[in-house]
Write a structure and sequence with these properties.
By secondary structure, the protein is of the alpha/beta class. The protein is about 45% helix and about 10% strand. Strands 2-1-3-4-5 form a 5-stranded parallel sheet, with helices on both faces. The longest helix has 20 residues. About 40% of the residues are buried. This is Arylesterase.
Length: about 190
């Protein structure tokens, strides 16, 4: 089975030695649990949702059985309009749906410095799109780095980030994979074999 991990630098494994990024760690985690899966690295550093929309069609090769979408972080870093992010993600998920592939959407959260209206518009688009496209939904890519889910502590994440304060280090990726893995297994269970 082939799972396309479609995203940006968080997917690509920016700043990490080969074998320590999200894709190889996730594939190892899944295989250790008996999943016969290859995870394809469809991560492009710096990619926005617009970039993802422009490349999703040719990324969905005939051997892809399921897709995990993790995009939006660079839209946030650039302060792009959440309406455009929504339109682009909707286009990506629609392209996946046209091919009748099971999909997962992994959310991002806007920081408060863009204002409450921006934050609500951005944060709200992920659950709404996941529901509209019947995608497995993961609310937050980075939440596993912030300790207690009931009282997340962004300061706690520092130990699991690289020096840039944005990208997870190898230990951070391992924590993300531990949290993400069971939901990826749910996604793979949707694949018609």
């Amino acid at each position: 089975m082939q799972l396309l991990a479609f995203g940006d630098s968080l997917t690509q494994g920016y700043g990490l030695p080969q074998g320590e990024g999200l894709v190889p760690q996730l594939e190892s985690w899944l295989r250790e649990r008996g999943q016969d899966v290859t995870v394809i690295n469809g991560g492009v550093s710096g990619d926005t949702t617009a970039g993802g929309l422009s490349r999703i069609a040719w990324s969905l090769t005939p051997d892809v059985d399921a897709v995990m979408v993790t995009l939006g972080g660079n839209d946030l870093l650039r302060g792009l309009d959440p309406a455009d992010t929504r339109t682009n993600l909707d286009g990506i998920l629609t392209e996946i749906a046209v091919r009748d592939l099971p999909m997962m959407l992994v959310g991002m959260q806007a920081p408060g410095n863009y204002g409450t209206a921006y934050q609500q518009a951005f944060d709200g688009l992920y659950p709404e799109l996941a529901e509209a496209h019947d995608a497995v939904y993961v609310p937050s890519f980075l939440a596993p780095l912030m300790g207690d889910p009931e009282a997340p502590d962004p300061a706690a994440a520092r130990a699991f980030l690289q020096a840039d304060g944005i990208h997870p280090n190898a230990e951070g990726v391992a924590r993300i994979v531990e949290a993400l893995g069971p939901q990826v297994e749910d996604l793979l269970a949707r694949v018609d074999r």
